[in-house]
Amino acid sequence: METAEQRWLREARAFLGGAIGPTPGGCGGTDQLVEAVLRGLRGLGGGGGGGSSSSSSEVLPLGYSFISISDLQHQQCTPCCSHLTWSTTEFKEWVRQSEGLLSKQSALPRAHLILIGYLTDGRQEEGEKRVDGSLYVKDNSGAVPCELLHFELEWLELLFLFPSWAYVPQKDHRTGGYVEILADPVPVNPVPERMVNKIPVIYPAPAMQLLITRVPCWKRTKLNVAGELARLGSLLCIHHKTFFFLFLKCFTSAACVPVLVQKPAQLAWHHVLQLGHGYVLTALSMSGLKMSGHKVFVTSFSSCLRPYCAEQVKEQPLDGAWQEGPVQPVCPQASVQLSSLLELRYEDKRPVLTKESKILSYVGTITRVLNAQAGLYELDNKVCLCLAYQQLLYFARGLRPGASVELRDIHLLQKPLGSFHSIVLGACLHSTVLLKDFSRLSTFHQPVASSGNLYLELLFRYNLSLPLYLWVVSLIEMLEQRFSPFFGRRQLLLFSKHQSPGVAEKFLVPLLDAVVPSKNQARNIYSEILGEIHECPLHQYQPLEPPCQAPALSLLCSMAEQKSWETFCPSQLLSPLDAQHMGTQELNCRLAWSYSTFSAESFQPRMVLLGVLRVSSKSSSLQLQDYSGVLPCVICHRDGSPFADTTLIGSLVQVETYQLVVEMFLQSDFPSWEQLLNLEHVREKKTGLYVQFYFEDVQVLSHPKPLIGERPASRGSPCLGKKNDGNPKVELDSPDAKVPKLEGTEAGASSKEYCARDPGSTSGASCVSCLFLVTQKEGLMPRNYMPSGEGHEDKQELQPSFQATVLWMGKPRLWANPGEIRSLPELEQTTDHVEGSETQQRVLLLFMGKSSRWFPVLHPDGLYQIVVPHCTDLGVFKQLCLPPVPKRVLDQSCCPSCLPVPDTWHLQHETWISCLPHPQLVPESVLLSMGQRVSSIPDLLNPRFTGSLVSFCGEIVERASCIPVEYKRQSASSNTQGHKESLLPSDHNVKLSVIAAPSSSFVLNVYITTTFLKHLRGLLPGAKILFQNLERKISRFHNVYCTYIASSCIRIVALPAPDVLLAPSPKGAASSPPLVLLSSLLLQPCSLSHAQAFCHLSHVLALSLHWMCSLCNSIFREGRCTRQSPPCPSYTGVSQASARILVEDGTGEALVQCRNQQVAAALGLNSAEWEAVQSCVQSRGSISIQLGGTSAGTACVEEPDDLLVWYLRSLCRSPVACRPILLTFSLDRKPSKIPQPVTLQLRRFLGTEVEFMSQVGPRPILTSLNIQEAEHKVLSYLSSKRTLGLRHGPLPISTEDI
Fold first, then answer.
1. Where in this protein does the record put region Disordered (predicted)?
2. What pTM, to 2 d.p., does this model score?
3. CA distance 166 to 177
4. CB burial class (10 A; 0-12, 13-18, 19+) of residue 75?
5. Rounded to whole angstroms, how far apart are CA atoms 1061 and 692?
């Protein structure tokens, strides 16, 4: 029976015979090889089975098995180590020491494997591989790169046993690992001894003289140079040539000479050379570098590297003429202790434009790989190491967390970039980076790409300083983190050397062109290595504050919300003159909705907006998306046309000019305006964010992939797919979903499909399309379109939906692939279309559920293609009549049929009706109705206007939340759902004051309930809005206003100007009201909304001063409410005042209603006098004074004959009140109907000396908006205009003329 040892020996012979074979030049065959390997294993004294150690040197490691290079690379997917000579106790102690190095990092696991192979430098007889200085372990199955801490040139091409080694694979690649040789390898055959004869050498001091002096005979002579290795340059590969420099220092002086090593067979010297050791380099020649002119020694093919031994060399004397000459010592900079620099404190806080880096030596442990491709590592948890300015040593093999490195001539930079490590160590080409010890931790290899590296490409193209390079790295990392799930890392990091630029390059190149000086000096690597005065990109630096930032959308929203609430002050939202007269309900209602706006410059550094443009199926709005979240957006064109470019859906866009809007919704219980600074009365705060910008300010960084044909998930449904349970995060409108799929398709949905796949079709990419013109679109809101006959109406949930009336513009067409759809093929035909024909039939399109995502890009007057993917049935659009829509809806829209649009269908915008080359292809009746759809605001205010549903365009001058006087709660489920989703209370409305143009004085009020606010964005003062299908109403006082209803929708025509957003103007302040005469108000009572008049205050007819309870509006007297049943707990009162005055300007008279602060202005009281009057009224609660005469309009009321009443009566009759004023007013229609012109009545007027009779008309009733003092010379100026004013109506007078 075969024993375990015999079986192990049999397997060993089989492995060695196949993987290794007979040794080159060896005597005998496989048997001799096996005996040599076994002899080496026994000589190691390996513990059998990897268990306890054995004292016998004849014990074979039966617990270990041989592994070939190929199996190691393909089967070992995780890091591991093998210690052939260690016992279990020794390994456990090693593991214990390893795990204490870094937290959350485990030690390398042990693998009982025996590695045997040849050490080689990669040279092959066929020349298939370029030698790059790397070392390899190879056998007959393959070769794997290896790293050693100690290497001898005699080891090349010899067979070795490796007693201690570790294999480190790449995380995502099976064949990208390498081997770390942890202990010196054991040769299978004895290493041949090299016989060394005594050779003549020269030392660096005289060798330097030879380099300085041009000596032709010495230039042709091969020299042997001996010296101490003072500096070892890194391996460089330039123009497909690999080389490195070394510097030999004289043993007795500081003289150094540079040696260039570039022969492929000599690149392995880089592994042998150790700083501070003596070496002899033979057969060197002198040469000059063409690029820099420096003189260096260059190795030849016959050059050899030998350890320096004084007994084996003899100094070669030079001629006396060459021994004299200046010797310029070149030595490394003195080392500086980093520990002292870490504790430096900035004593001088003054800004320093340019700093010089310090050069030092440092030994540390890699604790984290910050970015391997960028060459950034963290040392000792506190220092950043940048190796990007020199090509990384052996593709960064060995630079893993836990590895120890030694840095010589390294640059230290303090705070090069804000929000980055305070101390950065940068290695230039003059620096030396040595790997001192391998890592013991189980971490993967992160290789550095030698080509196609965007980090290094931008670094060398712009010769970036370290602060700028760190900033560029942070931006690339940001792009990769935010958008690699959408576009993939490869597409993001492409650079344009051999192909089109990637996203990162498109984003960074304009920024770098603006930041980096255009005449930035190119980097001279030879001067950097060989120059006597060291100059490199790291020598001097300027600490950099990032010019811009582009954080994740979630962080951007968080920053904007924080800034909004930090600067939020309720007292600044209301005018103090108005707020002090508001009750609790009105005050808190006005505070319920406010906003803040931010631009890119509002953040430091400047904020650049990046995101993937998408249409959301949940909110039915345009959004910018990254991995962290979404940000709703409003996009406009500067020419006023709507955004409808469906080809940009899925694009990565960059916006630098934008308005970030933070809508703030507040629920509060402020008792009065005096407590506005006390934020304890704020019960709840909510925010809603969106961004608005012009499409002309958008830069597209990456276009979406073209729509490709994919078979839907459901076999029985070529048009409707099923939810992809394997990827729940991919929404139907995300860039990853190339063909959207319908989520939650029911089992019986296949019987309701609108198209059928051709059984004989071999491709699933075919599609059907048809062109249509949008003639009308209704608003988006939850509706109850449900198929009939299903029952369960109570259980059906509402879904967001909208409907659009369209006109087919041709017949359906079949395409082999969506990419073949030509632009407007139907309109290229020359045949005439007949109105009412099959090709131009009106249809009502219903967008329900996820298909409502097309709402923000579907606009009237637009031509669109509707695409049905995976369909070959041209009759798909004929199966239109479906039961969800009642017949009355079709009758109202003048459409004979309707078409519900499934979720998987696509829309493609083609053009606008105004851009058609042959507009006669559209029926004339359609063009006429579309052209007469929009009305003007003056026409809507005209009482002769008869329309009910109206559309108009105007600019918002004021918006406010309000509570209707008679609010009726609706029990409909749609309203309930809308109120739940709204951020405003359900009893609040939004009032918009809209003007036709900035120079217009016609104001139209628009009221919107909270049900519709969820889908409306951009309603800000200064914005120009196109309101469509609003309901025009006339109040009982004959005021014209509009309300937003279910069929209404809005479109942002122009965004507010930045200055308007920063300082929103109150209503009526957008333009100076016109100056009119009072007589013109009777001739054209509806032509003006706001106006000014220079007039004389003739009489104060009535005056009322009250203190009201802020909670219940009862009389407030002596600090408490007077309501008794039930008792009111309020202890807060607000003052309210009203007065009726009579004014005249010589052409007519008018009654003016004044309230609150306008009463004080009418009486001519300053703020101190007005506060004194209010304080006296507070003890009484209420005072009403009506002066006698028919002008009062009511009978006189007896008032207490006290001092306050006497003072107010006297004040109303005194010249202080009765004086010339400049009155800003609006027409007041509440007390009665609009005054109509009637027959003039005869009136008597008394002057100081003259009594005369005149005919006057009825007095118009006005509401005072502002009262200003008017000088006497102004009235004198107007006397010359009165005659013209009586004859021609309103005077063309402006305040600039006066």
1. 711-745
2. 0.81
3. 10
4. exposed
5. 12
